[in-house]
Amino acid sequence: MKNTLFQQDILTADQFDRSLLDMVLNTARKMRTVVLKKGCTDILKGKIVTALFYEPSSRTFSSFITAAQRLGAGFIPLQGVTYSSVSKGETLPDTIRTFASYSDAIVLRHSEVGAARIAADFSPKPVINAGDGVGEHPTQALLDMFTIVDTFGSADNLTVTMVGDLLNGRTIHSLSRLLALYKNVQVDLVSPSLLKLPEGLKNTLQKRGLVIHEYEKLDDALKSTDVLYVTRVQKERFTDLDMYEQLKHKYIITSDTLHNMKKSAVVLHPFPRVGEIEFEVDLDPRALYINGQMVNGMYVRMAILALVLKKTV
Ligand code: NCD
Predict the structure, then answer these.
(1) Which of 271, 274, 293 is the best mutation target for the ligand 1 pocket, counting ligand atoms within 8 Å of the beta carbon and taking the most?
(2) Cβ–ligand 1 contact at 110 (below 6 Å)
(3) Residue from 267, 297, 265 nearest 279 by CA
(4) Gap from CA of 88 to ligand 1 centroid (Å)
(5) How far apart are CA 216 and CA 232, in angstroms?
(6) Do the Cβ atoms of 234 and 228 come closer than 8 Å?
(7) What distance in Å separates the CA atoms of residue 205 and residue 108, rounded to the nearest whole number?
(8) SS3 239
(9) C-alpha radius of gyration, the chain, whole number
């Protein structure tokens, strides 16, 4: 299949159709084999990747950096912009044009919805959206899909239950778009009424064929769940911190929760968790947020960098 991601920006999950998604997942599988067999390769030797992160990150930042390293690329790591000219008031376009002069791709995390799109408009080099405010987080969604498809063989016919801050959670906004590419997928949305999935996105997803149910109680959705996707209430998006305190622990996943789920069901979380999943759950083999999503993030980001920077992978 032709690599249509070559030299392309990755800004939204909407730019993926099933065949493009399958290409990324297949390439991620190849990357897994490379890492398990040899640790690294040099297919991106001579390339440089900038990771420009205006918001905090552990996994996304370090998995992109390690992905670049394992592919033989160099990188410019800018985590927190305190030590760049952004702290002197430099605009996003100027910052982007600077790093586009030095590197072959820019991975950007920013607090504003649409920032990656603006960056792409100014950048002669591909821009990869690593989270734009409450907008999207397409590479997280790709690694979530990799984890789901790796577990179930496909996402067709699954019931995915999304729990927590569906209003502000950008991982949810991207993952739900990718799930709509599969057949007969049901998405159960569990959130406090103040943190429901934006109505516009819900309508779009329904038009694309997702069967969506909304609940306030997690128990109402558990029995039929195949994938329980848990998210943190996004404190940094709240102006009213009392409200955050009231909402933050409405849903807590415990061993009992797992007990009430199908034996085959799995638990995902993009992390960081701040109390939504009890530590006791980590011991259950169905908890894929540590032994699954984390390492898959590296394979998927290797695939993305390779496809964006190399014509044939
Ligand atoms: C997520 C994010 O930044 O949106 N983290 C991540 O990239 N794995 C989820 C979150 O911060 O809650």
Answers:
(1) 271
(2) no
(3) 267
(4) 27
(5) 16
(6) no
(7) 26
(8) coil
(9) 19
* 124-170 pLDDT tens trace: 999 999 999 999 999 999 999 999 999 999 999 999 999 999 999 99
59-110 pLDDT, tens digit per residue, is 999 999 999 999 999 999 999 877 677 778 899 999 999 999 999 999 999 9
Encoded amino acid at 152, one letter: F
Q: Could you identify the residue written with the tokens 């065949």?
A: 19
Give the type of residue at 218.
Answer: L
Residues in Cβ contact with 196 at an 8 Å cutoff, skipping those fewer than 6 apart: 166, 167, 189, 214
Q: Does the beta carbon of 133 lie inside 6 Å of ligand 1? A: no
CB of 165 within 8 A of CB of 195? yes
Tell whether ligand 1 has an atom less than 6 A from the beta carbon of residue 286.
no
> What's the pLDDT score for residue 248?
96
Per DSSP, 15 falls in state G
The DSSP result for 10-72, as a single string, is B--GGG--HHHHHHHHHHHHHHHHHHHHHS---TTTT-EEEEEESS--SHHHHHHHHHHHHTT
pTM: predicted TM-score of the whole model, two decimal places: 0.97
Cβ of residue 270 lying under 6 Å from some atom of ligand 1: yes
